[in-house]
Amino acid sequence: TAISNDSDFSSEVIEARVDGVEAQLGEIMAGQFSSSTTMSGKAAFITGYVDDDNETDTDSITMEYMYQLNMNTSFTGEDNLYVRLKAGNVGDHFVDSAQGTYLSAGKNTTDQLRIDKIWYQFPVGDDLTVWVGPKIENYYMLASSPSIYRPITKQFTLGGNGTVYGSSTKAGFGAAYTQPTEDPSDGRFAVSVAYTNQNGAKSGGGLFDEDGKSAVLTKFEYGTPQWQVSAAATFKENGWADSYFTTPKGKSRHASGSETAIGLRGYWKPETTGAVPSVQVGYDVSNIDDAPTGYADEASGWMVGLMWDDLLIDGNRGGFALGSRVSASSIVGGGSDELDDNSVWEAYYSFKVNDGVAITPAIFGGTDVQAEGKDHTGAVVLTEFKF
User: Fold this and answer.
1) 48 or 299, which is more confident?
2) Are 337 and 327 spatial neighbours (Cβ–Cβ below 8 Å)?
3) pTM, whole model, 2 decimals?
4) I need a labelling partner for 211 at 20 to 30 A (CA). Which of 39, 222, 233, 256 fits?
5) Which pLDDT belongs to residue 328?
């Protein structure tokens, strides 16, 4: 009996100590991140070169980096506070949007870790999602992406990073409605609206500054998980400029002009991966109001992208894209844009080493992008570590 009593006593002591440890652990956890906060990230090593007819001695091989952290916090289980931190020392050609050699993995913060994006996203009912944030781009406030092609150079992002989805990280807000369906494989439509203003963070301007450079994007889409077609319209005021508008000086949009840009997108994915590629197409056309003589009043551009998942080896991926960057198709007072026949392309093959590491050799090039008769070619090996 004595032994039994001692055992009961010992059990009670152990339970009391465990309860005490749990209480202390709860106090510690209360001072840490919310249990609903998750973090992921990636690092990229960029090794390559660009040979440019516009410059000399540009074929030096460089090695640069980009580092990114993504933090997601939910307070209700359905909302999300998103913060992206970035650092990098990528320079020269690999962050050159005018030439088209800006890499999707490129970033130059002079080695400083900075807040790159921050916004809050929450549902309203079952079918409507709302975004608001001091650092956000219009294409993050969409029911779904208009493109499935994964680019090496930014100019092929979003089915063509031109005048419709071309944006900059500024203050804004938006909403997207998605039609509910009983079967996820059924076709459904969605509509998205987003507003951004480049003066949104300025005390002398403000989010609704009439003289500020503002943009309103509206996207209509219909499709299934296998295919989608969409049309988008962007209305830009007070000379909102996009660095992917390829025109020589004097023919770009006027500093105080407004613009209406229309973007058509479509994609299709095969039911099985391997030999048959996914297909992505995009076309942009713009009309610029009140453009003075010598400036563009119409512009257009296009792209076609092919992507093979599980090409040759499961987990590997190949891609090829070809297009023409947005250039002037009409100039006030007559004349033509010497860059209206520009062309750009890229090709790559991505090796999946494991779930966290991928190595992607790629080549890319362009003609008549910055000057008529001037070409550029480049090659890069992108090593990405995801965690």
Assistant:
1) 48
2) yes
3) 0.86
4) 233
5) 85
Q: What are phi and psi of 43, to 5 degrees?
A: -125, 145
- Smallest Cα–Cα separation from 153: which of 371, 374, 363, 369? 363
Confidence at residue 115, expressed as pLDDT on a 0 to 100 scale: 96
Q: Two tokens at 261?
A: 């840009």
For residue 229, give the H/E element and its range. Answer: strand 227-237
118: pLDDT strictly greater than 60: yes
The whole-angstrom separation of Cα 198 and Cα 168 is 8
Contact of 285 with 298, CB cutoff 8 Å: yes
Task: Please report where in the chains the tokens 């209206």 appear, as a residue.
Answer: 340
Residue 243 has phi, psi (to 5 degrees) of -70, -10
Question: What gap in Å lies between CA 335 and CA 60, rounded to an integer?
Answer: 38
CA distance 198 to 254: 17
Which pLDDT value is given to residue 207?
A: 83
For residue 252, what pLDDT is reported? 61
Could you tell me which residues come within 8 angstroms of residue 344 by beta carbon, excluding any fewer than 6 positions away? 100, 153, 155, 322, 323, 324, 325, 364, 365, 366, 369
Q: What is the pLDDT of residues 10-41, one digit of tens each?
A: 555 456 555 655 555 555 444 555 568 999 99
Could you tell me the CA-to-CA distances from 51 to 58, 91, 103, 374 in Å, in that order?
5, 15, 15, 11
DSSP states along 110-125: TT--EEEEEEEEEEET
Half-sphere CA count of 285, side-chain side, radius 13 A? 4
